[in-house]
Design brief:
Strand content: 25-35%
Low-confidence stretches: 1-6, 330-334
CATH superfamily of the largest domain: PurM-like C-terminal domain
Shape: globular
Helix content: 25-40%
Distance between the termini: 37 Å
CATH architecture of the largest domain: Alpha-Beta Complex
């Protein structure tokens, strides 16, 4: 059933968004959906952390993706930004433009949102619904104790560069879904391996919030890997005015990705594929063992892939021992 947007906006909000599954109460949220604005009351000595991402159909997700998949991806990538800052999710707002309102589409979309909202105790507290091409704008709000946020600018010479999970899976998944890669026409599937097991890595990013909170005060700097490992690491290096050496042989990848790509393309996927939504942390040698223990307690793989150096830029030590300067050829938004 299709409704005219002007006549049904508030009914849709009441029926699908202002529900206990999404608009639930928690400490720090004084008022959610229902007034002109939400009311947030951060605890004493806590900083409020904001992040906003806009996801456009056909750009940040396939146009034919299922509504619940789109919703989980949209909220998940935002929560990953909070994880990078070591912030505990508090709540979020939603701006949604859709060509027409279909109740079954909205129901599936909000079901997907509520799955992650409940998992991370992060209620929907407001937003806007309008007519237009399909786009989702989510702003997440989080809390971090005063002075405890992990910034990009804190890396130190001699820090180990640590990466959670595996890299390159989402890049392989996009090829398997039939989409072109920003890595160019030479980046293609190799062999007969089935990339379908990696589709979930693209559609359902896993925000590393638990791990990040456990690493508060242990990491000197951090960033989430969204546009590509080297591209995002370069943001840290620019803010910290330092450089890095990366070991090609240490890059973490899944067995499926390895089976789907040639060796050179696998390295490209790890370095520049993007959409990984893993965390990259810069950690001192004194704190490294403790960070690995946090990862173990979270049942999360963690790899040491390089070291922070004084000379600016990113250098890759190849498997045969050569040192090669690498650029961040990650995803470009424009």
């Amino acid at each position: 059933m299709v409704f005219a947007l002007a006549n049904s906006e508030f009914d849709i909000i009441k029926k699908f968004l202002a529900t206990p599954n999404l608009n639930f109460l928690r400490d720090g949220v004084e008022l959610g959906i229902g007034d002109d604005a939400a009311i947030i009351k951060p605890p004493p000595d806590q900083n409020l952390v904001f992040s906003l991402d806009v996801l456009a159909s056909g750009v940040h997700f396939p146009a034919d993706a299922k509504p619940d998949v789109i919703a989980r991806r949209a909220l998940g990538v935002n929560l990953s930004d909070l994880a990078a800052m070591a912030a505990d999710p508090l709540c979020f707002t939603l701006g949604l433009t859709i060509p027409e309102i279909k109740e079954d589409w909205i129901e599936q979309f909000t079901d997907g949102l509520s799955t992650l909202a409940r998992e991370f105790n992060c209620p929907l507290v407001g937003g806007d619904l309008s007519s237009g091409q399909l786009q989702i704008a989510i702003q997440v709000h989080g809390l971090v104790p005063d002075g405890m946020a992990t910034l990009r600018s804190g890396a130190q010479i001699g820090d180990s560069i640590l990466v959670t999970g595996t890299l390159g899976d989402a890049a392989v998944a996009l090829l398997g879904l039939g989409y072109e890669s920003h890595l160019g026409s030479d980046f293609k599937l190799h062999g007969l391996a089935d990339p379908q097991p990696l589709f979930e890595r693209y559609f359902f990013p896993s925000p590393r919030v638990e791990f990040a909170l456990g690493c508060r005060g242990l990491a000197n700097a951090a960033i989430d890997i969204s546009d590509g490992f080297v591209s995002d690491l370069s943001h840290v290096l620019r803010e910290s005015r330092l450089g890095a050496e990366i070991e090609e042989a240490a890059l973490p990848f899944s067995a499926t990705a390895e089976a789907c790509l040639s060796e050179s393309m696998l390295t490209q996927a790890c370095l520049n594929g993007g959409d990984d939504y893993e965390l990259c942390l810069m950690v001192s040698q004194d704190s490294k063992d403790e960070v690995f223990e946090v990862a173990k307690n979270c049942d999360l793989s963690l790899c040491e892939v390089g070291i922070i150096e004084e000379i600016e830029g990113v250098r890759l030590k190849t498997r045969d021992g050569k040192m090669v300067a690498v650029n961040g050829d990650g995803y470009k938004h424009f």
